[in-house]
């Protein structure tokens, strides 16, 4: 049994997501200013980083960035949080066997140049069976007992699946999950994480519920879904994309940009409504590919905080009132956007797709599973 404080009391409310350090979102992730992004994040108090082996070179890029001399000199390992995942290997390849889970965790430790991981999620749990999830969770708890992992949880897309698995793990093991991460389910387009999921997750004792992909994996942008120059990978149907672009044009006619409205609405509403346990505000992830995106998201986030009463945070009345006025404006815009989206409000695409088959036939195969390094 872990004696660590609840994750909700230590995790920062804004996490720097690094799924963008990946070929899926960017044609050449190694050309991104990742060193500058990571350093600026730490300087600005965004001292938690989310990654995954499934995100291509993301773990390696993040690990290298954290080895910069100026970061090593000014930001000891204990001053930031590393969050990664395990179990997903490829688009249609998953391995939740204990031997693979241990190997994946060891590989993440190596790539991230650390002897422990603050949070590890089972990645995209909807693609495997509940018994496989339970077996992998028990494996993670063994690593947690050793000190190799501090907190453990599950991540995925379908809210009902996340809820049912959180309930199953509590029922079968007598211990709740430390955390659950949901993506693209609390956006202007889709409110389901809040309307159908949060109460169930709280009841299942989940310590922290993080909201990721506030733009719906890039769907809610004026320019449309991300184009990596290789394939159209986004799961949103063409009808939903068309509705989003119609909404984007309407927003632009009023002098706004869809992504600006969508980011602020999701960050603000989840901060206010997504609290779990002892959290002062709900936890969100931001994903950026350049310094401009980082600075703009940080500016919006700080403005959101200006309108929330947070112990120890001082803000002028002018800034507080501006934040509250902007909150009202954003809410009005979001309601009009949802009218345009119509039947696609709260629409969730299938995950996995119909006919999905796991390509991983032989489970747990690795060349060598080296012993885990001792935790600090």
TrEMBL record:
<dbReference type="InterPro" id="IPR020471">
    <property type="entry name" value="AKR"/>
</dbReference>
<dbReference type="GO" id="GO:0045290">
    <property type="term" value="F:D-arabinose 1-dehydrogenase [NAD(P)+] activity"/>
</dbReference>
<keyword id="KW-0560">Oxidoreductase</keyword>
<dbReference type="GO" id="GO:0070485">
    <property type="term" value="P:dehydro-D-arabinono-1,4-lactone biosynthetic process"/>
</dbReference>
<dbReference type="InterPro" id="IPR023210">
    <property type="entry name" value="NADP_OxRdtase_dom"/>
</dbReference>
<dbReference type="InterPro" id="IPR036812">
    <property type="entry name" value="NAD(P)_OxRdtase_dom_sf"/>
</dbReference>
<dbReference type="InterPro" id="IPR044480">
    <property type="entry name" value="Ara2-like"/>
</dbReference>
<feature type="domain" description="NADP-dependent oxidoreductase">
    <location>
        <begin position="13"/>
        <end position="306"/>
    </location>
</feature>
<dbReference type="Pfam" id="PF00248">
    <property type="entry name" value="Aldo_ket_red"/>
</dbReference>
<protein>
    <submittedName>
        <fullName>Dd11521c-94fa-480a-8d43-41f6558e7a11</fullName>
    </submittedName>
</protein>
<dbReference type="GO" id="GO:0005829">
    <property type="term" value="C:cytosol"/>
</dbReference>
